[in-house]
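Entry 14. Two folds queued back to back today. First construct below, sequence then structure tokens.
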Amino acid sequence: MINKKALIFGAGAIGRGFLAPLLQDCNYQISFVDNDKKIIKKLKKRSSYKVAITEKKNYKFQEINIQNVFHIDEIFDIKKYDIVFCCVGPNQCNKIAHMFKNAKTVISCENDIFSVDNLKKISGNKNVFFGIPDVITSNTASKKLLKIDDLMTVTEKGILILQKGNYKLPKKISQVSKSFLEIHWRAKLFIHNAPHAILAYLGFLKGYKYIHEAMNDKKIKKVIEGAMNEITKGIVNSGYVPKDFAQNYKKKEIKRFSNNLLFDPILRVAREPLRKLGKENRIVLAVRVAQWNNKFPKNTTIGIKAALNFFHKSDPESVYLQKLRKKMEDSKVLEKICGIEQSDPLNNFCLNQDLKAVIKK
């Protein structure tokens, strides 16, 4: 019996693709808030859409029933919802944080553990908790699947791991202690997020459209597996994550990246390169932690050089990055964006990596 209501901010890969089917399975009515007028218009015309969930060799299809859809500028009563999820992107979540003031419970699935503190501060709502969608999900699908439903998304079954709080959810959604949540977050940030981004930048430079296509390229795969080994050893040596947990996480990620059922768009993973190259974000932090192996991480630093070369006219951060590179040397760009000072030997090491050998067709 459906008697609970969930409101999801962000009708993209995580919101529409992963959270909606999971919450519907837990007997929640699903509503969305988004700023994409095209998506909103399509969703408002319909009462449902389909999600393709990957199995070993094929898909299981699930029909998602929609209760309400709101544009971000519309008026709606957030107090009516039992739980609210925020998955609009780390750069955007602070802009809408004030909307969460009167929410009963807010779960931040923003791929940034610090988003919780920011949302609490801006909204004045103390009932904000961190969630980790441990999943690869796409905001689109193959041409064949889109013929079935042009709003189709593709997702793994995945798991959602939440910080314990003063709220109740079904047992199938894991609610864990803050200490365990932090371990899982470190594993995801370093072993998933960093190599995932590096894979996207290398794949983009070589002309691929989807993550699995890039991972099936022998040269790129060698770099990604090398980076994952460097990073995994580093987080174990630094005491950040227990060895068994880290090793198992690494094995899982290699399989995920190669899954040709997922159709994970490279442009989605590569977007916002300034954020992903930030000194407190995935790639640079992964390089830092990999240095606990007492040598410079060759494969992970190739990722920094690849990210520097990312340009797509639809991505404002990439446009700004390339304008910056025209004004100053790359060594200064690394210092400004990545916090890797020109006097740091790591700066020169990053720029000396042979990127051309990897992306040469």
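Second construct, same run, same settings:
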Amino acid sequence: RMAFSAVSSNKLRSFLTMLGVIIGVSSITLLISLVRGASGAVTGQLDLLGGNQIAVQIEDTGKRLTLAEVQELESLPEIRYVSPVLTGEGKVRERDRVKEVTVIGITEHYDEVMRLDLQQGSGFDRLAVDARLKMALIGYDTALELFDTEQVLGREVILNGYHFRIAGVLEKQAQTLMGSPGDSVYIPFSCAQSLLSDAAVSMFYAEAEEDVENEAAAEAVGTKLMEKFGKKDAFQVVNMNDIVDVIRSVMGILELLLGLISGISLLVGGIGIMN
């Protein structure tokens, strides 16, 4: 009775105390939930990038790989697919509508290696790459911005002055660690070499066989590249699983630190309320 009497006789003080408790507990719960949600989103994207993937960057500008030399790596027993990538900037136009996009030259195995999901159409085959067919895969957002609809299969766009037929539309996706797929246009690698005036391969991705460890696949690729370049600093082979593990560790530490800070804040607020 004394407690209820004290609360009712000091309404403003009681309200402010309740407000402090509500805000303190809610903010801590929300903060930890946001950190865990962000951690889950990041690790989810990293899982898509990781798995059995290997990224290779050619550092030697004096001696470069050709498309045929990269495709020969698929003959290694440890490697399932190889997909070189050539990236540049471009402008895609449909009548009076113009959009700046990232132009990405890919081969027939890119969608398997990099988990490229298509809403409509299909990816490129070896014929499209070898014959330099002017075909394009465009993002969902790009299709809407240029045509006001995502039903654009078979229609044409002008990319850096050249006509390309739309062969596929990507699934609608948010911004990822690899950029925004919605603002990208994918074309056959051979077309990108001409369009971007770059005939060499400076970067490619490889996918290991299902029963092969990433470390073994990376070592096999490194050995093959050593035969070409003769020195280790001419290229860099990155096991995507290693990147996933490092970032997961960082996110775990961040979650722990934020939880500790929140706990200290709650303790300080509790001492003030008790006082």
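Quick look at the second one. DSSP finds nine helices and eleven strands in the chain. The chain has a mean pLDDT of 84.
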